[in-house]
From TrEMBL:
Domain of life: Bacteria
Family, per entry: Belongs to the MlaE permease family.
NCBIfam families per record: MlaE family lipid ABC transporter permease subunit
Residues of the signal peptide: none
Membrane topology classification: Multi-pass membrane protein
Any one GO MF annotation of this record: phospholipid transporter activity
PANTHER family: ABC TRANSPORTER PERMEASE PROTEIN-RELATED, PROTEIN TRIGALACTOSYLDIACYLGLYCEROL 1, CHLOROPLASTIC
Keywords of this entry: Membrane, Transmembrane, Transmembrane helix, Transport
Protein name: Transporter
TM annotation in the entry: 12-31, 51-69, 154-175, 195-219, 231-254
Length: 259
């Protein structure tokens, strides 16, 4: 008796994961067919971009300062505090900034996508679109996916800029490292291939956020309680998927690209 609810939950989750994969394939098919609503794309770009910019900048700035302070403290024991910019480039710019940015967008945008589509699903607005001969993938999902894929790399660039600014401030104020020394150290370690990889991560993470959010929204059944659960679960599964994807990209990037 105790195992039956557990098996039901596992079955429901497996169905939803399969639905996410199926939705991913449908998105590619509809994208290749060129069916897009450009006004909807611009609308969601605002949500994934300017609306999400304040928390991205706030978290990126403070994360840059915290990382610099902690790293410089350890490097100071070896008399190598001037190389803090290099450590900053290796860890913060390559990994921490993209992960933090994607997590913020997942929490703010991905949950909103799941809640919006979930509410539409339980109130039968999705069925109304079918009655109007409008495909929900074209009208609701594809614009959100395109918007996230376009804005996520932009948000990561903003996070990098504000993070480096915070790192410069912390290194200068607390460890008397000149901004020129910090920036030169960053430049020596951060290569063109690293910047390209950051942009690739932005595209992939944006796709993950949008597809997960839309999938959990479209598969919502029940009422208001289930809508909230879908939004919460969408964020959690998105975070897990982002970390898995980042691990795979890090393994593939062990042999850096040469230019």
């Amino acid at each position: 008796m105790i195992g039956e609810p557990k098996r039901a939950i596992e079955q429901a989750w497996s169905i939803r994961y399969f639905s996410t994969l199926l939705l991913f394939g449908q998105i590619w098919l509809h994208f290749l067919q060129g069916k897009t609503y450009y006004r909807k794309i611009i609308q969601h770009m605002v949500t994934a971009g300017p609306v999400s910019l304040p928390p991205v900048l706030l978290v990126g700035g403070f994360a840059g300062m915290i990382f610099t302070i902690q790293t410089a403290r350890e490097l100071g024991r070896f008399g190598a505090v001037e190389t803090v910019g290099g450590a900053f480039a290796v860890a913060f710019c390559r990994e921490l900034a993209p992960i933090l940015t994607a997590s913020i967008i997942a929490g703010q945008v991905g949950s909103a996508f799941a809640a919006e589509l979930g509410a539409m699903q339980v109130t039968e607005q999705i069925d109304a679109l079918y009655m109007l001969k409008t495909d929900p993938i074209d009208y609701l999902v594809l614009p959100r996916v395109i918007a996230c894929c376009l804005m996520m790399p932009v948000m990561m660039i903003f996070a990098l800029v504000i993070g480096i600014t915070g790192g410069i401030f912390a290194a200068s104020e607390f460890y008397q490292v000149a901004p020129e020394i910090f920036l030169n150290s960053v430049r020596n370690f951060l290569t063109i291939s690293d910047m390209l990889m950051i942009l690739v991560k932005g595209l992939i993470f944006g796709l993950i956020v949008a597809v997960n959010g839309c999938s959990w929204g479209l598969t919502t059944k029940g009422g208001a309680k289930e809508v909230g659960e879908s939004a919460t679960t969408a964020v959690v599964t998105t975070w897990v998927t982002i970390f898995i994807a980042d691990f795979v990209l890090s393994v593939l990037g062990i042999q850096p690209l040469t230019f």
